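Hi C.,

You asked whether I'd gotten around to modeling the 137-residue construct. I have! Everything is below, sequence then structure, no commentary in between.
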Amino acid sequence: MILQSLSDAAVEAPFIFKKNGFYYQFISFDKCCRGLDSTYNVRVGRSKSVTGPYLDKNGVDMNHGGGSLVISGNDNWVALGHNSAYTFDGKDYLVLHAYETADNALQKLRILEMSWQGGWPTVDASDLDKNITQLIE
């Protein structure tokens, strides 16, 4: 498990997902649990081995500050983190929590469909604004 402090930020809650011969390690990065002042976001690195090393898109080891941004939120949803990834009916999903700005930073479940570009996971931040049932039907 990765747990380190980078200045005032934290790296926590790793989740490993295997896809197309790679292991992808998703992490929650930065400041959590501060309501609307939270800066939590989801980052990823990948490896051919489950034991790593996990490198980001630029080849930087996640144990040394690496991690490619997957999603950081939008105006309506902040502090995205404590994520996991799953495949259901042939589609990949990123499951996480986020604080809804319109609801006084109340933490809520979000499920986002993941696609893959160049071997890296991507999600659409505008999907945060959709009803969960719209994304999983």
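If it helps when you're writing up: Residues 1-7 have pLDDT under 50 and may be disordered.

Thanks,
B.
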